[in-house]
Amino acid sequence: MKRNSYLEIAMDISREARKSIMLSLLYAISQLSDEEYLQKAWVERKSPEDFDEFTNNYLREFESMNKNYKFFGLSEFQHEKWDNFYKAYHYFCYNNQYDDNPELFIHSSEWREIMALAQEVLKVFNYNKKPNCYRLDRLYPTGKSIVACKSLPNYRVWIRFDDGLEGEVDLSHLVGKGVFAAWKSIEYFNEVRLDPHSETLAWGDEIELDPIVLRESLITKK
């Protein structure tokens, strides 16, 4: 399932929410830049997220940031580095000769180029947090995981996060736009569910909303 990009969901999020999105993507890039992490996470499989899942979760978000860099406040120099990284990673995902097997490609020249480009991105953002494949943060409430949801009239949903924050979110402004055309059928909208992997709202195999934006909607409303 492909998660709908942040900017397909909301263009009026606060500066703090944009910062949170940026940090989450930089953390993902830090994973790609760290050979030791990748060895443990993808080859030794000590992370619940393998290469395919990582790509499915982040490739579109990398693209969204690349296209909408001005909205997120990236300088032209930062965007140049991001663009170089995104294009190389995107090309590798669709054209590698290793059957998407990290054990085969992690030490390849093609992957080392991606790692180098990822490190350049981190450098221009002064980002130096080391990735942790054991995901210890998942043992505690993160405020990023939705644990309960329920559809409401007029294209609203009630949601609760793992840290207790809960409330209603109005999604009516999305109806009919792009993939959200499916919501013109209120019966389909009412089939909202929690995706067990991403821990956020999903409809069928096509629509998945980002929990950061949904959380921001609740906080702004309050």
Number of helices: 9
| Average predicted confidence as pLDDT | 84
User: What is the oligomer described by this structure?
Assistant: single chain
Low-confidence blocks of residues: 6-12, 134-141
Distance between the termini: 31 Å
Helix content: 40-55%
Rg, alpha carbons = 18 Å
- Global shape: globular
What is the percentage of strand-forming residues?
A: 5-15%
Number of strands: 6
Number of domains: 2
Order of helices and strands: HHHHHHHEEEHEEEH
Largest sheet: 3 strands, antiparallel
Strand order of the largest sheet: 1-2-3
Class of secondary structure makeup:
mainly alpha
Provide an overview of this structure:
By secondary structure, the chain is mainly alpha-helical. It has two domains: 13-135; 140-221, NE0471-like N-terminal domain (NE0471 N-terminal domain-like). The chain has helices spanning 6-9, 15-33, 35-43, 51-67, 76-95, 102-105, 109-124, 186-189, 211-221, and strands spanning 146-152, 156-161, 166-170, 193-194, 201-203, 207-208. The protein has a three-stranded antiparallel sheet with strand order 1-2-3, covered by helices on one side. Helix 2 packs antiparallel against helix 7 (109-124), helix 4 packs antiparallel against helix 5 (76-95) and helix 5 (76-95) runs antiparallel to helix 7 (109-124). It starts with 5 loop residues before the first helix and ends with a helix. The relative contact order is 0.15. Residues 6-12 and 134-141 have low confidence and may be disordered.
Features:
11% strand; three-stranded antiparallel β-sheet; 9 helices; 2 domains; mainly alpha; 222 residues; NE0471 N-terminal domain-like
